[in-house]
Amino acid sequence: MTTTNETETTTSSHSPTHIAYAAREREGRTPVWNRVGVAWAHKNGKGGFNIQLFATPVDGKLSLFIATEKKD
């Protein structure tokens, strides 16, 4: 388990490696994807992520995608 200090160090010193999205299903329409947080790989290299959520998905579904730079 990650301590608060380790999480703060990781989140403040590096850009996130993943973006967390929640998809809201809409009957007969394309789902709406909302950015709800970010994630960083653990420093120990043994897998796992530190996840910081800005909002909680209503339906409990959360998807992580590799972070990419936005093009203007």
What does this structure look like?
This protein is mainly beta. It has one domain (4-66). It is built from 1 helix and 4 strands, in the order H-E-E-E-E. It has one helix at 4-13, and strands spanning 18-26, 29-41, 49-53, 63-66. A 4-stranded antiparallel β-sheet has the order 3-2-1-4, covered by helices on one side. The longest helix has 10 residues, at 4-13. It is elongated. The N and C termini lie far apart (38 Å). The model is unreliable at 1-12 (pLDDT under 50).
Structure described in brief:
This protein has 72 residues and is mainly beta.
Question: How are the SSEs placed, and which strands pair?
Answer:
Elements lengths: L3 H10 L4 E9 L2 E13 L7 E5 L9 E4 L6
Helix content: 10-25%
The major β-sheet equals: 4 strands, antiparallel
- The termini sit apart by 38 Å
Cα-atom radius of gyration: 14 Å
Instruction: Indicate the overall shape.
Output: elongated
Features:
1 helix, single chain, 72 residues, 4 strands, four-stranded antiparallel beta sheet, 43% strand, disordered N terminus, mainly beta
